[in-house]
Amino acid sequence: MGLKLSKQVPTGCAPSPTSDQVKPPVIDSTPVQPSSPDMATIHDDDERLLARIGYKQELRREFSKWSTVSYAISILGVLGSVPATFSSPLAAGGPATAVWCWFIGSCMAMCIGSSVAELVSAYPTAGGMYFVTKHVVPKEQVAIFAWIQGWCNLLGQTAGVSSVTYTVSQMLLACASMNSTYQDGQYSYSPTAAQTVFVSIGLLCIMGVICSLTTKSLHRIVFWFAPINILATIGICTAILVLTPEKQSAEWVFTHVTDGSGWGSKVFSFLLGFLSVAWTMTDYDGTTHMSEETHDAAIQGPIAIRSAVLVSGVFGWILTVSMCFCINDLDSILKSPTGMPAAQIFLNAGGRTGGTIMWFFVILVQFFTGCSAMLADTRMAYAFARDEALPFSKLLANVNEYTHTPVNAVWFVVVFSSALNLIAIGSTETATAIFNVTAPALDVSYISVILAHMIYRHRVKFIEGPFTLGRWGTPINLVSVTWVIFISTVLFFPPTKPVTAANMNYAICVAAFIAIFSLSWWWLTARDKYTGPRTKEMIESVPEEDYDDLFSDGQASLDEKEEGRSSFENEQVQVKGHVRSVRKQKRVAFAEITDGSTAQSLQAILKPDQAASLSTGAAIEVSGTWKACPPGKEQKHELQATAVRLVGEADPETYPIQKKYHSPDFLRQIPHLRLRTPFQSLLARFRSECIYQLGQTFRSHPHGHFVQVQPPLITSSDCEGAGETFTVVPQSTSSASVKDADHFFRSPKYLTVSSQLHLEAYAAELGNVWTLSPTFRAEKSDTPRHLSEFYMLEAEVNFASNVDTLTDLVEYLIRDLTRRVHDTPAGQEVLSAKRSGESGDDSAGSDEGLRKRWDALLSESSWPRVTYTRVIEMLEDAVANRGASFTFPPVWSDGLQLEHEKYIVDHLFGGVPVFVTDYPKKVKPFYMAPSETSAGSGKPTVACFDLLLPEISEVVGGSLREHRLPELIQNMREHGLIKNAPSDEQAEKAAESKYPSLLPGEDLGHLQWYADLRRWGGAPHGGFGLGFDRLIGYLAGVSSLRDVVPFPRYFGRADC
């Protein structure tokens, strides 16, 4: 490893790099294994996390923060679910039972939701809590535990979908009943069980169609679920309170408890009232089942879960209280001919028309709930099938190539749920029992994982996600487990007494059937082939307490010499660095130390008292003996400490960088600290190596030595002519709109957008020149592809007369730089490290996808050159004959959009770098020379090129410069860069010697110096600009420039 170790000598000097400095590592040291080959093409951090967990990204991430929150709220569906279940607490214990059961149940739901959120934040996959089982129980118990938990969750989800659609069917038919003739205390239309079932199956099919849409379409639909739910709830509460003539007193609403259950106890009747809130406030991990379709799922999922419980709890309580105030007669409401007390309350308040309108919104919201529940169920079925736990798993795990959603799993759920609903034709009691098992089955599936995490937390390593409960975790988990066990027991009791075949609660029987079914299947066949969630075994368990076993925690060692021995073995050494993590045991402690020289950490063995004051982030000095580990262990060496000195403390309660996953958005908020994460540190070293090797490449160019120059950063012009500049003014200047004489530089000046113009001045004398300089562009572009401050590699070649000279130079430059960096320690580390901005250790192994990317750049095959005109023809042909579709149709005069560039590289040229040359003159800057073939063609083009790389498109742009003065001035005139001199100066200008090619009254202004380069000794020349940060990101496998640059500046952000 590359940590700077020194033998302890009196002088304190470090050993000579040639003799004692250890080689940088080729082994990475995080408790995760290599990412998949697709890691090279990962586009955001969610995909990196998914790959780190062990799955390939197959679904499209389209759900935003707000659509995720809307989805979470809609899956609870307050306005639909509360009226649907209002009769249960009302009949069991009266209005106070309904009111306070909802309030208490909501508080308990927040505890359960928070516990679930903490766990799924660490592993946000379509499997939800089912997948988390892999990381909370010992390896030997994973298979059976995940099997039972998965079936419990899947059957609970499916029963929930069935019950919601059955309820929506009941509501629709109740609405039809409400609007039929009312005679002799009943309505003329009363739906049959068969009608209810068949309507529910029709609803399931409609929901199935919706759930089969693309994720982007689902995002757009789901986005409106919560606003409609909340606004309709507010509207209905207001309407019934205003329109109901006689309302109950607050005392009656909040204190009146009855013994409607017949159990002879108001207390027990009160407990039975929790059915409504238990049935509504469940499916907490439903949001997590959409994780693989949600941006930043590890953060947005927990936010959505807790927000949904809070919003649903508040509005559900308001709705419950409002309906209780509007109960004129409790008995008549409970005996409503509609079959639903809530419907009768609406009918009493608004009459047939008003009641129907209010009931319509209840049905609509409940339909939304059904869609959301089906989405969660289908993703759970997809995840379960992906692990081969279902019949026809290969078919059900298939992702549709057109919608990029698991369509087969959707219709599996539709058929499964329809089968459950069909039971109601023969036995309503059996169907009701299946529906009633929804809440207990789901809640038990949650608390089993929570409980396992509590029991095995010191035995099984669990890498926390960005959302944690901290010190409140244990008490909240205990409350959640206790509550679910208690309430599930209560809800298995028959709701009324005396118990008959008609009112018996058969949910306990269904639950027993689920247990027997899953265990029987397990013992008969599944145990021989099912191994649990099938990942790549990416995250290892915490070792056992046994001292020797603790050595096998996956920490890598210093590089050894060929004979397997380190040059420091058995020597006294000293390490200075920061603590990446510390694990304290009773008899021994382990600290991982890094000094920024490598992504790999060094493991130090400490005594408990030496580690007592250590925490993650602390700066320390450790002295000790560099010892070899016993044979057969993954790590080869460790530092056995003899002395530890705490140099700088880091409060573990406030230090933001911990050994866990951190999202890019979080790390961007602390750019001054994110460099302490392994991969960000590696990127900084990799950038340094690239800059060094870049100089070597330019010095060794076979056709001439290039001189590195330093052009100014403050300029008088906008090289691109787009006006997207930052104006430079002193702090004391209140406005840039001042007279030239009052400017600090006597005229407006700007931060450079390109060094090209000044490089041309250098090249006129020095020949071939290059620079790597910061550039600044005031583009209000909030995308990961653009920054306001970035580094541009620019070069100019004098006496260059054709574009091929420039494209050959660019191809040589990138290929030679890649070759040189490839053979360096930093290059090898990049090829073996995970592509992530998170904290913690990095994964060992190699990213084959990234290696293929490098191999393509290193290939000796020449990169194709194609003209812009030909490319447009090929794109038009693709649209006409190959079924290609673009948001912006390819038009010759409009230039190329990003989607065109990606299609050119990926489809037209098979994924290799491509030079596109000779763009239309009108879309390029004024300084470009005309193409040799553009004269007389009617479509004037310029001698320029763009280099398009696979996956990221344009990286380099260059051109021949217009070296002829008359033609340059005409170009400047066409681009509006030549000013008219003020009228009082025209006479003086005319008296002076006339500038060549200028018309009377014209003034070159701040660009006269640039024209002078042509006026006196101008020669053909050309150059290019390469986005250095974009190239670094391409080589490192990081797509967002905000994660490539340590301190990114972009629209709206420049934190420090």
Automatic annotation (TrEMBL):
GO biological process annotation, one example: amino acid transport
Topology in membrane: Multi-pass membrane protein
Stored CDD domains: EcAsnRS_like_N
UniProtKB keywords: Aminoacyl-tRNA synthetase, ATP-binding, Ligase, Membrane, Nucleotide-binding, Protein biosynthesis, Transmembrane, Transmembrane helix, Transport
Localization (cell): Membrane
PANTHER family registered for this protein in UniProt: AMINO ACID TRANSPORTER (EUROFUNG) (PTHR45649:SF10), AMINO-ACID PERMEASE BAT1 (PTHR45649)
Phylogenetic classification of the source organism: Eukaryota, Fungi, Dikarya, Ascomycota, Pezizomycotina
Region (Disordered): 1-40, 828-848
Signal peptide (UniProt feature, chain positions): none
Ranges of residues in domain Aminoacyl-transfer RNA synthetases class-II family profile: 696-1046
Name of the protein this chain belongs to: asparagine--tRNA ligase
